[in-house]
Amino acid sequence: MSKKLTSRDEDYSKWYNELVVKADLAENSAVRGCMVIKPYGFAIWEKIQAELDRMFKETGHQNAYFPLFIPKSLFEAEEKNAEGFAKECAIVTHYRLQNDPENPGKLRVDPEAKLEEELIVRPTSEAIIWNTYKGWIQSYRDLPILVNQWANVVRWEMRTRLFLRTAEFLWQEGHTAHATKVEAVKEAELMNNVYATFVENFMAIPVIKGVKTDSERFAGAVETYCIEALMQDGKALQAGTSHFLGQNFAKAFDVKFATQEGKQEYVWATSWGVSTRLMGALIMTHSDDHGLVLPPNLAPNQVVIVPIYKNDEQLEEISTLVNVIMGELRSKGITVKFDNRTTFRPGAKFAQHELQGVPLRIAIGPKDLENGTVELARRDTLTKEVIAIDNLTETVEGLMTEIQNTLYKKALDFRDSHITEVDDFETFKTVLKTKGGFISAHWDGTEETELKIKELTKATIRCIPSDMETQSGDCVYSGKPSNGRVLFAKAY
Amino acid sequence: MSKKLTSRDEDYSKWYNELVVKADLAENSAVRGCMVIKPYGFAIWEKIQAELDRMFKETGHQNAYFPLFIPKSLFEAEEKNAEGFAKECAIVTHYRLQNDPENPGKLRVDPEAKLEEELIVRPTSEAIIWNTYKGWIQSYRDLPILVNQWANVVRWEMRTRLFLRTAEFLWQEGHTAHATKVEAVKEAELMNNVYATFVENFMAIPVIKGVKTDSERFAGAVETYCIEALMQDGKALQAGTSHFLGQNFAKAFDVKFATQEGKQEYVWATSWGVSTRLMGALIMTHSDDHGLVLPPNLAPNQVVIVPIYKNDEQLEEISTLVNVIMGELRSKGITVKFDNRTTFRPGAKFAQHELQGVPLRIAIGPKDLENGTVELARRDTLTKEVIAIDNLTETVEGLMTEIQNTLYKKALDFRDSHITEVDDFETFKTVLKTKGGFISAHWDGTEETELKIKELTKATIRCIPSDMETQSGDCVYSGKPSNGRVLFAKAY
């Protein structure tokens, strides 16, 4: 199999799919729409998890685990205030296989082993969690509950793409319960800010914070906060959402608490989540035609060292030096791998590490041993440099920060140059077609206009930005009055 | 709800169930046989996970993620060499709910949305993983594959108990692929040793290493290595297993590799796992009638500090001191919580921390401020002591080690005093009934005898110990010749 990727210009979508598979991030499985996350891809996801988990705990949250299955009746309770909730889910109806009496060697579902009540594989866990919280909450002393869960969820998507939209995906879902509306709103905003900080500082992906319109809001939410990122092909990607759920779930599952004054009141709720979709955002923000580009914060190996040698003696000499270098780099918290595989030649190793986005490659050959130098190759700029080995550790340390910052800056420049203020619908369509990106335009606030624009252009309102300035204007489609600009884009 | 537990003597099983719920470890859910792992219980599981994950990585393994679902046809392929594999699984047959036309407000499974092929919710992942490995392995250069997965699995158990046997549980499953039999056997043994080291050193639970008999072996395995622990009620608990799978799965899924010499050979395999069952082992090894007892390594809070005060001024003075103490303890890597909740009195806090097994409690009151002392209460020995505050950090540090060791020693003494050498079947039955524990007895090596003993006594052969001495004798049941003693016990 050729390691070379289709270029982004040629076919962006093909480039993406090839990169995911060839860089060993993930692949399709024998199960329709479900992916295998390969060790290298999973190592990146573990870095995402670890940092987010740290941030959740720092803001007072604890992890817990709730059942994979949700009885159909709990779904019905939720359904009352979430009519729009998707019903494409995996449904368990039976609990036993048996040898098929008509086909020796084959198995069949035992028709006798039918469940009394069907179980839904969780597409999200509000229903089972709020049904559980009912038992945990009696009085104000039991509040707040600040719980998060790392879990797999299943949504029966018809058209799937690795990381971006898969039938099963991994995510975290926070579910909190509060005594007051003010506190719950504050929590939903806090977690959206946590996501923004994480995605920007850790993943080097700039985002716009805002809230969703009525039609794009999570069913059952009163307000949906979100962070929106921009991919290289000019399409937006929703990177995380945080919902203020009001008392909707408390009412659906009858969860009340005794206030300090002894009154019975419904509990206020939030939920918030990010998923393995972030891997898609990572790839489509930083990568290039040579493969993955990783910000140092997310790289399983920040540095890889490749020895160039002609004989065992040279390899041994290089190895001795590399051990010293690795010790120093590790003492500074830098992850480094010595790629001393004898089954691959240096060229093949270079190609692999480039494809897999290792931020910095160090090559050491006999000449370097003589001269006291090493060759550094940056993945982000694809530049090489021979430097003296003396201050290697400081140089590498500095480069880690610089690469992280450079990637963020580059993505930010791209994003900022792809926000276009537009005041008439013809320009709206032209910009969308020729340049893409976010279109900042006036909107009359009606769902009718929003849906009409979507129908005509496939662009949706990604968010009403948190920092939207009040500004009167005319709706870009209807011409009706508007009091501020919202962001439209085509989206993943 | 009373916080007091039923005593172990009165009803061991009831004590266990009450402890799990009252100590906030887990509870039953709305889904038959599935549990909710509560934040406190999950925090303990996270400690187990973190340490095991570290050990897996240290021994060269990487994490990955495979689909939750397994198509029925893959099960059939596996079935050929694993006839005995349990078929009690959750089966997904449909992918859509719809509003029930006959019952407004209710949902039903859309009969049109039937899957072409049923999907099994993974009870274990050999089938889907080996079907994937087929694509990963071409030559010896692709081996070994050393992969682990942290996942939820489902087995449709009829009789469930929190942590010990639940329909859904959390576990890790390692799945490795090797070029040679020797290497695979070594891996299976290595991982059983990793489990033993972890359970003994980290969880303070002594275990016996050994292999399973033919009838107790995992279906599809050539050899099953295991670690067996002994619970306080004299029943054994299998704490972990590691399987040498031979070439069985490679053959079932046609996974061959080109050797260095260019020959095509089937790949050798292992799999190994531990689960949330370890939480059950933890509880039943160390806890007492007052509640959970945690070894410091597994305690979410190793130390809790409770202030005793009559007014805000005293609380403030105590808090100032506590901040200093916490800073010092944390600098030594000790996790400490200041329980300054104003909604609970000290007595209630003491009771809660005792029930939840916090290894060390520090109480500080006005008298202590005057005298420069604090009160230490050890959970394991239930002893209290007033000590000078001067060398508190050193004392606490020392106690962490001491408590960990004391718990292990106590469990080891109990275990060792419950291994009884028995040479006739009458004594076998009496010991089992009166004392329980492991019975070390000669066995003729036949499945017939093993099953007969199980039928008559409910005791099974837990393992053929790794350190079994060759010793000729007569089978405790049949009188036929035997060449060593194996360990029988009733088991969870």
Task: State the gist of this model.
The structure is a homodimer. Chain A is of the alpha+beta class and about 500 residues long. Chain A has helices at about 10-20, 40-60, 70-80, 125-135, 180-200, 250, 275-285, 310-330, 345-355, 365-370, 390-415, 425-435, 445-455; strands at about 25-30, 35, 60-65, 70, 90-95, 95-100, 105-110, 115-120, 145-155, 170-180, 210, 225-230, 235-245, 255-260, 265, 270-275, 305, 335-340, 360-365, 375-380, 385-390, 420, 440, 460-465, 475, 480, 485-490.
Structure characterization notes:
Chains A, B: Homodimer. Chains A, B: Keywords: Aminoacyl-tRNA synthetase, ATP-binding, Cytoplasm, Ligase, Nucleotide-binding, Protein biosynthesis. Chains A, B: Residues 27-295 form the Aminoacyl-transfer RNA synthetases class-II family profile domain. Chains A, B: This is Proline--tRNA ligase. Chains A, B: One of its GO terms (biological process) is prolyl-tRNA aminoacylation. The structure is a homodimer of 492-residue chains. With 492 residues, chain A is α+β, with helices and mostly antiparallel strands. The first copy, chain A, has 3 domains: 12-70 and 123-286, BirA Bifunctional Protein, domain 2 (2-Layer Sandwich); 301-399, 3-Layer(aba) Sandwich (Rossmann fold); 419-489, C-terminal domain of ProRS (Translation Initiation Factor IF3). Chain A is 34% helix and 27% strand. The first copy, chain A, is built from 13 helices and 27 strands. Chain A has helices spanning 12-22, 39-58, 72-79, 126-136, 181-202, 248-252, 277-286, 312-331, 346-355, 366-371, 392-416, 425-434, 447-457, and strands at 26-28, 35-37, 62-63, 69-71, 91-94, 97-99, 107-109, 114-121, 145-154, 168-178, 208-211, 223-230, 236-246, 256-258, 264-266, 268-275, 303-307, 336-338, 360-364, 373-378, 384-388, 419-421, 438-442, 460-465, 473-474, 481-482, 485-489. An 11-stranded mixed β-sheet of chain A has the order 3-9-10-16-13-12-11-24-27-23-22, with helices on both faces. The first copy, chain A, has a 5-stranded mixed β-sheet with strand order 18-17-19-20-21, sandwiched between helices. A 3-stranded antiparallel β-sheet of chain A has the order 4-8-5. In chain A, a hairpin with a 7-residue loop joins strand 6 (97-99) and strand 7. In chain A, helix 2 packs across helix 5 and helix 3 packs across helix 4 (126-136). Chain A is globular and about 80 Å long. At the A-B interface, strand 2, helix 2, strand 3, strand 4 and helix 3 of A face strand 2, helix 2, strand 3, strand 4 and helix 3 of B. Strand 5 of chain A pairs antiparallel with strand 5 (91-94) of chain B.
